[in-house]
């Protein structure tokens, strides 16, 4: 129900629905319950259904891996963590979403390849794409000074 309250305040789609139901004379508890029910269906579709979120409020396709890469680049996340997160997210995507998710990453790579003549590109933008293209997998090593478990 807290999620429903937040969606009613912060999400334009649910805000419009709430205004429509209010104009129809529905009780605010009815509105809150319907929003919670719709959210539960969306969450179930994602978690149990193994699908990427599809919602009427989404005007354009959202790309998970691209957003994750942009987030890590903006926050200066260490490259090992960025790659680990990208691989974990890619592993969670259903097979049907792989082609859609690859498109924006290949667009970024194409821009980087064609943009070399215009000036320097931050290494943080290049490394994840090159390593992903090469299919490099991360290996977790023990931190220096950790005791061996014998």
Q: Any overview of this molecule?
A:
- This protein is mainly alpha-helical and 150 residues long.
- It has two domains: 2-47, no CATH class; 64-134, no CATH class.
- The protein contains seven helices and no strands.
- Helix 1 crosses helix 2 (12-23) and helix 2 packs antiparallel against helix 3 (28-47).
- It starts with a helix and ends in a 16-residue tail after the last helix.
- The SSE order reads HHHHHHH
Helix content: 55-70%
Radius of gyration computed on alpha carbons: 21 Å
Q: How does the helix and strand content classify structurally? A: mainly alpha
Q: Estimate nothing, just give the exact number of structural domains.
A: 2
Report strand %: under 5%
Summarize the main sheet.
Answer: none
Mean pLDDT: 76
Number of strands: 0
Low-confidence stretches: none
Question: Helix count?
Answer: 7
Gross morphology is elongated
What is the terminal-to-terminal distance? 49 Å
Quick overview of this protein structure:
About 65% of the residues lie in helices and about 0% in strands. With about 150 residues, it is mainly α. Helix 1 crosses helix 2 (about 10-25), helix 4 packs antiparallel against helix 5 and helix 6 (about 100-115) packs across helix 7.
């Amino acid at each position: 129900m807290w999620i429903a309250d937040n969606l009613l305040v912060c999400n334009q789609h649910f805000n419009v629905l709430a205004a429509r139901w209010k104009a129809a004379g529905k009780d605010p508890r009815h509105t809150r319950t319907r929003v919670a029910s719709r959210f539960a269906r969306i969450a179930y579709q994602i978690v149990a259904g193994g699908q990427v979120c599809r919602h009427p409020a989404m005007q354009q396709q959202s790309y998970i891996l691209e957003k994750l890469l942009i987030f890590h680049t903006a926050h200066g996340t260490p490259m090992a963590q960025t790659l680990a997160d990208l691989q974990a997210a890619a592993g969670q995507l259903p097979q049907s979403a792989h082609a859609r998710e690859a498109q924006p990453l290949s667009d970024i790579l194409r821009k980087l390849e064609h943009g070399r003549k215009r000036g320097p590109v931050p290494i943080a933008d290049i490394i994840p794409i090159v390593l992903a293209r090469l299919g490099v997998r991360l290996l977790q090593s023990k931190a220096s000074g950790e005791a061996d478990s014998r």
